[in-house]
Write a structure and sequence with these properties.
8 helices, about 30% strand, five-stranded parallel beta sheet, about 375 residues
């Protein structure tokens, strides 16, 4: 017994140190969270504070703005750098404003920054922030980005409106409404983003959903997508791309409804309990942020994956085909997802007509 205890102690003492992501997510494993609705509900300061601690996201944003400033504002020989107008839409408490100003200092390209925000609690922090001389180039705008009439157009439109499934916090609708703020050759950060799905087996997640209490708002817990730090999960096939959005969107008719049918092949005999959702976003050129398992931005913890459950667990054989149909439905006041297993055994559509869960376009 003494030798066993010593060996356990040896393993503990020599284990790999936890990553920043693991340290942050400790205690959140398999905890089901209903996604945020920042358009419908104003975020509180504690939520902002958690996101602002991310060590990677804002460095990537700064790098993207830095590269754009060099491309757009660098002086010709013998000339002066060209001031760039940066609009941070959905500025929150100011981390993207700071990243944009840091990029300006690094590139030595002057900027004029508009910080557009509608959340009054965040505006209080922003107004105190701009008292610092570092923020002297910043103008605070108390408005919804979709309603504001700017005095000038933006060279760069910066936003962090992404959710765990890329578009589930309505970034497409927000940025489509805000792109009129941009110059004809203006650039958006991010410029595009893609959601991904993969079939998973997880008795733990399934039981957690089954044990969720029903209420008047969410009638059936199996008709929601959840944000969750996945640990006790087995991916049954490789991740595949789902929906893509790009900005600015110059389509003659903008339509953010989507439908896709994805086919997977189970790599083992298992029980299918649902689908994991991920995303990646191109901020500019080769600057990305990602939760995709193969390309996850190291130490970034602002987003956990999504889990879309199926109500009836499905036994699948090794090599058997799994087909999921997935819809993004848009109406004038709300957006929702629907999903249905088509193979190996068809199931009913989950969240049909947004009966259990939808994302509001207005507060």
């Amino acid at each position: 017994m003494d030798a066993y205890q010593k060996y356990i102690y040896h393993l503990y003492e020599n284990k790999e140190p936890s990553s920043v992501y693991e340290e942050f997510s400790r205690g959140y494993e398999e905890l089901l969270q209903i996604p945020l609705q920042p358009l419908k509900d104003n975020l509180d300061n504690s939520t902002y504070e958690i996101f602002e601690k991310d060590p990677i996201k804002y460095k990537q944003y700064e790098e993207a703005v830095y590269q754009i400033l060099l491309d757009r504002g660098s002086p010709v020989p013998g000339g002066e750098p060209t001031q760039q107008v940066v609009m941070v839409v959905g500025a929150g408490r100011g981390p993207l404003v700071r990243s944009s100003l840091n990029a300006s200092r690094r590139s030595k390209i002057p900027v004029k920054v508009y910080a557009v925000e509608k959340n009054e609690s965040a505006l209080i922090i922003l107004r105190n922030l701009v008292k610092d001389p570092f923020f002297s180039e910043v103008t605070i705008i108390d408005s919804d980005m979709r309603d504001w009439e700017p005095p000038e157009k933006a060279d760069i439109l910066v936003s962090e409106l992404l959710g765990s499934f890329s578009d589930n916090e309505l970034s497409p609708e927000c940025l489509d409404g805000a792109q009129r703020l941009m110059k004809s050759d203006g650039l958006s950060v991010p410029c595009q983003y893609t959601s991904y799905l993969a079939p998973i087996s997880s008795r733990k997640l399934y039981n957690n959903v089954a044990n969720q209490p029903s209420d008047s708002t969410h009638e059936d817990p199996f008709h929601l997508g959840y944000v969750v730090r996945m640990q006790c999960v087995n991916l049954l096939d490789k991740v595949k791309s789902c929906f893509n959005f790009h900005h600015p969107n110059k389509d003659s008719v903008i339509d953010n409804t989507r439908h896709i049918s994805l086919e997977f092949t189970s790599d083992s005999e298992s029980v299918l309990h649902g689908f994991a959702g991920y995303f990646d976003a191109q901020l500019y050129r080769d600057v990305y942020i990602s939760t995709h398992p193969d390309t996850h931005s190291q130490d970034m913890f602002s987003w956990f994956p999504m889990f879309f459950p199926i109500k009836q667990p499905q036994l699948v054989r090794q090599g058997e085909k799994i087909v999921i149909d997935f819809w993004r439905v848009v109406e004038p006041t709300k957006v929702w997802y629907e999903w249905a297993l088509s193979e190996p055994v068809p199931q009913a559509i989950h969240n049909s007509r947004g009966v259990t869960y939808w994302i509001g376009l207005f507060s």
